[in-house]
Amino acid sequence: MSFVFPLKTIGRLFQICEVTMSNPIIYDKAKFHLEGNFPAELERIQAFIHTGFYLGWLCKRSLTSGEFNEDFEPEIAEFRDGTLTAPNLYRISGGVLADDMLDKLGNEFTEVYFDLSHGQFLRDYQEVFGPGLRTMYHVRDTWENFSSIEKRLDMRFNEWLNRRNT
Fold it and tell me: Most Cβ neighbours (<10 Å): which of 21, 78, 124, 139?
């Protein structure tokens, strides 16, 4: 069986595919870390901690996309209830932080702040958790640690909002 589409329809289908199949911007992937200089003595979940904390903060501040919220509604509820940690939410959601997971404001901030090469996030992470830390992967997945980085993220977000709005 074959289908014949008028030229106008084919053009429209191509436009739809082009828009819906565009590649997302990947901000981070746990896989990048696991395949890099990840310490062999650590459990794999440790590669999910830093970005997991960031994703958790985004969820708490409602900076995630409607689609992400819908796809992971039960897990986000567990995180907000304190029964699922942010790094585990990140692991369950695929261990990827991408632009399609965030709303417009979340993406604008993440593009500037979370850029792992030039942004402020890793410097803040190091400062919050101490210069004596062997590697960034040695931060433990605790609610106390999440709360510590959450305060810094709130501060940076508010600073960014103030600059953005002036």
Answer: 139
